[in-house]
Amino acid sequence: MNLLFWSCIISHHAKAVRELLDKAGIRYLYLPPYDPDLNPIEKLWSKVKALLRRFKVRTINKLPIAICSAFNTVSASDCLHWFKSCGYLL
Q1: Potential cystine with 42: which of 17, 36, 47, 51 (Cβ 3.0-4.6 Å)?
Q2: Is 3 left (phi over 0), alpha (psi -120 to 50) or beta?
Q3: How confident is the model over 52-84, as pLDDT tens digits?
Q4: How many CA atoms lie within 13 A of 49 on its CB side?
Q5: Which domain holds residue 18?
Q6: Residue 2 in 3-state DSSP?
């Protein structure tokens, strides 16, 4: 089963979008308007930003490498933990 969690922005509620997801067999759940405690992406950003601070990048040329390095540390188990910590039953 494919499951998509996403925010409540207006474009996500468009009939054409819902029909496309339904046709593809993707279930979708909307998050509350803004509640970082229920949004696993906030946990991802927290980890990435902490790593970027730790890397102490001081030039724009090194920033893309640092960003890639930070994202490369994110594991599947991190993602699973973040969803569970937000109250999702997986």
Answers
A1: 36
A2: beta
A3: 999 999 999 999 999 999 999 999 999 999 999
A4: 6
A5: 1-34
A6: strand
